[in-house]
Design goal:
about 350 residues; alpha+beta; ten-stranded antiparallel barrel; about 20% helix
């Protein structure tokens, strides 16, 4: 076994207070632990572009960039639509998924310069911006009756009203009773993501990938030259080499073989590396950064095994592949990056 440049992410239970913003952890589920606390995304920026319902917080990845002083603290946040119909949509682009980047220098207005004490429980750094009591995102709407809880919009206000706020809401105010509540039913189970280097037979992998790449390039060349008909004259053994179906099967088999070594992995991280694809159907081009117009590079992907731990029948993906600004350009608040959903039917991912 050899160590590869990839860091693998695994789920691990954690004390909830250690997953708050001041401890800079990667995590899945719960409410987002916002990094920059003033310029939070607006509610309409976190709506599914397809059904217009609020997106659900999926995970955040703490990924500082050492060579960039402005990115001493850097977190990528992934939101997904929890509507089943949207997850079954054939569109792989970011209509139903969103990834945001936020970053801060070491010396900033929100957090201490030195790392916090992780041996004793302490509260998070409170946001000066009101947060939705249901999802933890920006909550500009205040309950007009008790004026003690905030919401991101009507959808979560209705959900909270039906979920119990109706029984405690009063004109006298209900701060203590309403804020000491059970986690919202729309939140995903919360875990910490811990990482460790991947170990894999790298040499064998490279040889296999190069061979498949050559086969695919030859197949594409013949197809583009209009010589697809000539394939009918090839012996059956040669024809199989150029079959798109064969290439897809080999890609998927390589994916399964790679993750079989660490079947519980939920994240693969390799900034400026290469994703592990499920199929040869990949994005034709990666859009440039919307802020600096520079190129984006692969940073991480979320694996299908995560679905087993989320207790949600509506979520579905093959792998979610995230590309971010290669230079991690300076920003204020939060900016969109690019995420691609690759689906393969009949994945047969074994549940524990």
């Amino acid at each position: 076994m050899e160590t590869t440049p990839v860091d693998l992410g695994f789920l691990e239970p954690s004390e909830p207070w250690l997953l708050t913003n001041k401890f800079f952890r990667s995590k899945v589920g719960g409410k987002p632990a916002w990094l920059e606390l003033l310029k939070l995304p607006k509610p309409d920026e976190l709506l599914c572009e397809q059904c217009k319902e609020p997106l659900t917080f999926l995970c955040q990845v703490y990924a500082p960039v050492e060579e960039n002083e402005a990115s001493f603290h850097r977190i990528l946040y992934v939101f997904v639509c929890s509507t089943a119909a949207c997850n079954q949509s054939p569109a792989p682009e970011t209509r139903t998924i969103k990834v945001l980047r936020s970053q801060l220098p070491r010396r900033n207005e929100f957090y201490e310069y030195d790392p916090p004490d992780e041996t004793n429980e302490s509260p998070p750094v409170k946001s000066p911006v009101p947060l939705c009591v249901v999802c933890g995102c920006r909550g500009p709407k205040l309950c007009s009756r008790c004026k003690s809880v905030n919401y991101c919009g009507p959808s979560h206000q209705r959900l909270d009203w039906k979920g119990g706020h109706k029984t405690v809401c009063s004109e006298e105010g209900t701060v203590e009773r309403t804020l000491q509540r059970e986690p919202s039913s729309i939140l995903l189970p919360e875990f910490e993501i811990i990482t460790e280097p991947e170990e894999y037979e790298a040499k064998a992998k490279v040889s296999e990938e190069e061979n498949e790449k050559r086969q695919m390039e030859e197949y594409e060349r013949l197809k583009n030259e209009g010589k697809v008909g000539a394939l009918d004259d090839l012996p059956e053994g040669e024809l199989d080499k150029y079959s798109g179906e064969q290439v897809e099967d080999k890609t998927f088999n390589r994916f399964k073989a790679r993750i079989a070594v660490d079947p519980d992995q939920v994240l693969r991280y390799e900034r400026r590396g290469n994703p592990l694809w499920l199929s040869p159907v990949v994005p034709k081009e990666i859009p440039s950064c919307g802020m600096c117009a520079g190129p984006r590079a692969f940073e991480f992907q979320i694996m299908p095994q995560l679905l087993n731990s989320l207790a949600s029948d509506s979520l579905d993906w093959g792998t979610l592949v995230c590309y971010t600004c290669e230079g991690s350009c300076n920003i204020e608040g939060y900016v969109d990056e690019f995420i691609y959903r690759q689906d393969v039917l009949n994945l047969n991912i074994t549940k524990p």
